[in-house]
Specification:
The chain has an 8-stranded parallel beta barrel, surrounded by 6 helices. It is α/β, with parallel strands linked by helices and 240 residues long. The protein is globular and about 45 Å long. The longest helix has 16 residues, at 101-116. Helix 2 crosses helix 3. It is built from 10 helices and 8 strands.
């Protein structure tokens, strides 16, 4: 079964997915191993790896993760250099909320020749950056503005599905002051027919419950666990 098929199967069974996001720029060496000790205990559905500021291969971090766990490792690349053929899959992101062609299609074109020769499971993903109350690294690196208007967010997600994306990712950004509003999640979920990922600014159980109740199929938490890895078990308990 592919990663995407497993996601669809869980949704059909009325279950949600939990993904831990690891930024190799901020979590390396002993810190990465320590974080993985918590992750392995709870066995989330996915480990995502990537970061907007990282300008190197993911090989070292992916190799470490694969040595310590058999949880699917999915690349969450900020650019075409953030690849590793040792991973299991790749969110093939297109920043559909922005209008910078480099992150709509440019980086994807650069990565395509290598990806075509790989065994990675490639999952087309419409990436929608939502205003989280602070400028995030995604906005800074991509030189795009996050969306704040609910109707525009919903229409952008709908357009992403119509363009053939297999996932829609609503992202408030790393270190967001506030997560994506539950009402926006609810309205987006009502209008699309593909799995919905929500991440950014989710720092406590109530926020995650609200996102799940609103319709998120996959919850991603990363930045919070860099400082509070001890919260991983309690967060994961919501997905059992």
């Amino acid at each position: 079964m592919t990663i995407y098929q497993h996601i669809l199967q869980r949704i059909e069974q009325g279950k949600k997915c939990f993904a831990v996001l690891i930024d190799p720029e901020k979590t390396q060496g002993d810190k990465l191993v320590s974080l993985l000790n918590y992750v392995v205990e709870v066995n989330p559905q996915l480990i995502l790896i990537g970061g907007s500021g990282w300008q190197h291969s993911m090989d070292e971090a992916v190799t470490t993760i694969k040595q310590l766990t058999d949880i699917p490792v999915v690349l969450f690349p900020g650019n075409a250099t953030q690849l590793s053929l040792s991973a299991d899959g790749l969110l093939f992101l297109s920043l559909i909320s922005g209008r910078n062609p480099e992150f709509l299609i440019g980086q994807q074109v650069k990565a395509a020749p290598l990806l075509s020769k790989s065994q990675l499971e490639i999952i087309p993903t419409g990436y929608v950056l939502v205003d989280g109350g602070v400028q995030t690294s995604v906005a800074r690196v991509s030189q795009t503005l996050p969306l704040s208007n609910a109707n525009e967010i919903i229409a952008t997600a709908m357009a992403g599905e119509m363009m053939g994306q297999k996932l829609i990712y609503l992202e408030a950004g790393s270190g967001a002051l506030r997560p994506v509003e539950p009402e926006i999640i609810r309205q987006v979920k009502q209008q699309i027919h593909i799995p919905l990922i929500v991440g950014g600014g989710l720092v406590n159980l109530d926020m995650i419950r609200q996102a799940l109740d609103a319709g998120a199929d996959i919850i991603v938490v990363g930045n919070h666990f860099e400082k509070h890895p001890e919260d991983i078990p309690s967060f994961a308990s919501l997905f059992n």
